[in-house]
Design brief:
298 residues; 29% strand; 7 helices; 23% helix; binds fe (ii) ion; 3-stranded antiparallel sheet; globular
Length: 298
């Protein structure tokens, strides 16, 4: 990876420091709270495409700031789990174990579940932004896997085998997974599941801007790979996710209050990790840039 680099525009200087083994960068100097020049925004988006995960450290945002900054990249999704959105800003999906002011964060006590956000939508999200509002002193890291580098290093026979394969992503499959791992958690109601019928997605994605291929493997969301029986399908997904999540392709983000992390859902996978929810509070705000956002998908 490159070393520290700086880019200056009319409204400031972006400083970039690579952080992951093959991807990821910390970015400082981005005017998150106020106006952003088109030039600065273009530079930031170029960094997102290049590094796939951007960490903006300790900037302290309120929900309105987060929504305003996120919306610069394109229309925002409203999460399918509406109960877990923030009443004053429905674009914000709340994650953690906090309940207050009519908001109940989505709490998951499950095991690792690698995915890209909203893969069950016909047009999945381009990018997500995740903000640390209340951060426990230990645990709760967010882990990212470089699905682009992981694809690049597959052996040629595997690349050939998976080329053109289609996986079916289903909110119902995710609901059943959640039920097995979180028996006490409220699951999606049938109308939510009906609103998102199963969607066919390529197992290998091509990024619309960089042209890079990446592995689009979300084991808890994929019901099956088309043309395979269940056993073959599960074995293939297991092989691919095991490859993609080797330590050399993973960056684990240890949160500080006020950190903002933005990632490109078309190039990386991510998962939560556990924390001691009996001792600590956690509250994260997520916004999700809808698919085919003009600035991100030019
Ligand atoms: Fe996610």
């Amino acid at each position: 990876m490159d070393q520290v680099s700086m880019m200056t525009t009319g409204d400031g200087t972006l400083t970039t420091r690579p952080i992951g083994p093959t991807f990821g960068a910390e970015v400082t100097g981005m005017p998150i709270h106020g106006n952003v020049s088109p030039e600065m925004l273009t530079q930031f988006i170029a960094l997102l495409h290049r590094y796939r995960v951007l960490v903006v450290p300790e900037i302290m945002l309120d929900p309105a700031d987060l929504v305003a900054f996120s919306a610069r990249f394109g229309p925002l999704e409203i999460h399918s789990r509406f109960d877990n959105t923030l009443p004053a800003h429905r674009e914000i999906f709340c994650v953690g174990n906090v309940e207050r002011d009519g908001m109940k964060a989505s709490f998951n006590r499950g095991v690792e579940q690698w995915h890209a956000d909203s893969s069950y939508r016909a047009v999945p999200s381009d990018a997500s932004l995740f903000y640390g509002e209340i951060v426990p002193p230990e645990g709760a890291e967010t882990m990212f896997a470089d699905a682009t580098a992981a694809y690049r290093t597959l052996d040629p026979a595997m690349k050939q085998r998976i080329e053109g394969l289609v996986a079916v992503h289903s909110l119902e499959t995710l609901r059943l997974w959640g039920q097995r791992h979180n028996p006490d958690r409220k699951q999606n109601i049938p109308s939510q599941v009906a609103a998102f019928p199963p969607e066919r997605q390529p197992l290998v994605r091509v990024h619309p801007v960089t042209g890079s291929k990446s592995l689009y493997v979300c084991p808890a969301v994929i019901s099956h790979v088309e043309g395979m029986d269940q056993a073959e399908s599960e074995a293939l997904l297991e092989t691919l996710i095991t490859h993609a999540t080797q330590p050399r392709y993973v960056y684990s983000h240890r949160w500080r209050k006020g950190d903002l992390v933005m990632w490109d859902n078309r190039a990386v996978l991510h998962t939560a990790s556990l924390f001691d929810h009996t001792r600590y509070q956690r509250l994260m705000y997520r916004t999700t840039v809808a698919g085919n956002a003009p600035l991100l998908s030019y």
